[in-house]
Amino acid sequence: MIRLLWLTSMLCMLVTSAEGQVFDNKSVVALHDAGLGEITIITKINSLPCSYDVSTDSLIALKKAGVTDDVIAAMVGRCGASFRAQGIDNRSMDPLVKHSPGIYLAQEAAGAGRLLLLRPVVGSGNRTTGNGSVLFPLKTMLTVPQPQSQNHVGSSRPTFYFYFDAADQNVSDFGVERSIAAQSPAEFSLVRFKVKGNGREIETGRLSAYFSISLHLGVKGKDTTAFTAEEIGDGIFKVTASDALVAGEYAFVFSGESGRSRVYDFSVLATNLPEKNIAGK
């Protein structure tokens, strides 16, 4: 029993919780609901890169949630100033036009192309299985709530665009707490989740002990999918799977130095639809 508790605690120390640490609209509302004042919230907003949704519907939702006008203005100003300073245009359908840092899915919408920003999944966590033996090693499973992603893909060969800011070492959408932000798609793994109950999961750590301790951290090779990344501009990469994807639940996963992970998920709904993306570049 003591041996099992020791192995469990060791694995938990090595593989920390994979909760998304995004400071976004929900975070602002949470601080407001907790009773923090405007000055504190605005200071927090101004201390971090923009990761807010400042669309019209989102601003209305913030107002209904009781967020003050000054706080909302700070969010809009933070995003607007950041984007203008970098020559960013998130409304552009041209992949070669710089967008704010993140992963974008190329889609066809009503005959017109668009780039859909994939936001990291919030509420991810870990669960541990096994007893630490050779036959039943302790496994840490990265779990994501809900059995299916809200980002749907109707092609077996979807196209993604990764946008990086090489001058920013703390990009909120890519970086993780106490870690340097990602600067290349090579730092990500493309994984396929297993649907289990009302969620999705994948193994991210394994620990067993018999005569010696055997430890493996990270996603297993059989659970990853190869992809190609072509740099088409300054910090802009076109990314596609090396082989056609079968229907299922997928994600680009980035793990930083702190051990935390960010999950950018999508669902491949069918593999028999014609190839559609806005790229062709």
Defining traits:
disordered C terminus; alpha+beta; globular; five-stranded antiparallel β-sheet; eight-stranded mixed β-sheet; 281 residues; 5 helices
Sheet/helix structural class? alpha+beta
Look at the structure and give the mean pLDDT. Answer: 74
Number of strand segments: 13
Described by the principal axes of the CA atoms, the overall outline is: globular
Report the order of strands and helices: HHHHHEEEEEEEEEEEEE
What does this structure look like?
The protein has 281 residues and is of the alpha+beta class. It is built from five helices and 13 strands. Strands 3, 4, 5, 7, 8, 9, 12 and 13 form an eight-stranded mixed sheet that branches. Strands 2-1-6-11-10 form a five-stranded antiparallel sheet, with no helix packed on it. Strand 8 and strand 9 form a beta hairpin. Helix 3 runs parallel beside helix 5. The longest helix has 17 residues. The C terminus is likely disordered.
Concise synopsis of the structure shown:
This protein has helices at residues 2-14, 25-33, 38-46, 56-64, 69-85; strands at residues 102-109, 112-118, 125-129, 138-145, 152-153, 159-163, 188-196, 199-209, 213-217, 227-233, 236-241, 248-255, 261-268. With 281 residues, the chain is of the alpha+beta class.
